[in-house]
Amino acid sequence: MAYSEKYIRILHRLGYSNYQNGLIYRHLGQDNGWNGHLGNCRNFILKAIDQTCHDRITVLGSGWLLDLPLNEILEKVKNVTLIDIIHPPEAIRQISEFKNVVAVEDDVTGGLIEMVWKKAGEVPFYRKLKTLDGIIVPDYDTSDDPGLVISLNILSQLEVLPLKHLRKRSSAGAEEYTRLRTEIQKKHLDFLTKHDSVLISDYSEIFTDSRGVTEEVKTILTELPEGKYSERWRWDFDLKGSDYFEKRSVMNVIAIRL
Which pTM does this prediction carry? Predict the structure, then answer.
């Protein structure tokens, strides 16, 4: 179902289009720095598909299709559903030649985005929410049997823009934000563990400043399932220090066959 104009405005105000464009610009700005990570993602996905009997694949967080070996997948399965909050026009053009690939725009947090927007709007602009207690993370589900589900580099990203908006509109403490982040991640994992699935996600980011001082920050706050098998690698996310503080960063990534 197509988004309403009101919901499109909400996504725009929260910055989803800019955030998505920022990812492709970051990728292009790193020259070949992301190639190892993207290749590892694609190889793990193909390995998982070779070991499944499903003829349908559902991808959560398909994005720009950089880390998804779509052509190879279509040689192995009959139908592919790509789910993301917004699909880049370039991705839509890429899949237009395939009759058995469907792009669905959906909030894979089950409606948290709209809930956060409404909750933050309950108080006047000059006041702030005192607590996040009224924000309950919804369950997510698909209308059809998703087949093999692939959660593709989004587990740590689901919270980013909703919480960024809340921090502007709320005076809640750090413990409340940690609780909400953890619950968002748990709910996503709850959905994955109900299905035959693959999880690929960063779980920490290592920053190095101009003096060579390093700091590791956890990006996943909940316990990850062990799964049938897993692989780990480093993602050279930003080796050029292109952020405002000129810090270089690498991600620790895990891929799990659940």
Answer: 0.94
- Provide the 10 A C-beta neighbour count for residue 139: 11
Q: Residue 128 and residue 252: Cα distance in Å, rounded?
A: 35
Place of tokens 């790193």: 30
- How far is the CA of 47 from the CAs of 30, 130, 229, 230, 237, in angstroms? 27, 47, 11, 11, 24
Token code pair at residue 5? 């104009």
- Mean residue pLDDT of the chain comes to 92
Token pair for 87:
């699909």
Q: How many DSSP H helices and E strands does the chain contain? A: 8, 8
CB neighbours (10 Å) of residue 74? 16
Rounded Cα gap, residues 170 and 158, in angstroms: 19
Give the β-pairing of 79-84 and 56-60. parallel
3-state class of 203 per DSSP? strand
Least confident span in 105-119, 139-153, 243-257:
243-257
Q: Which two tokens stand for residue 131?
A: 């607590």
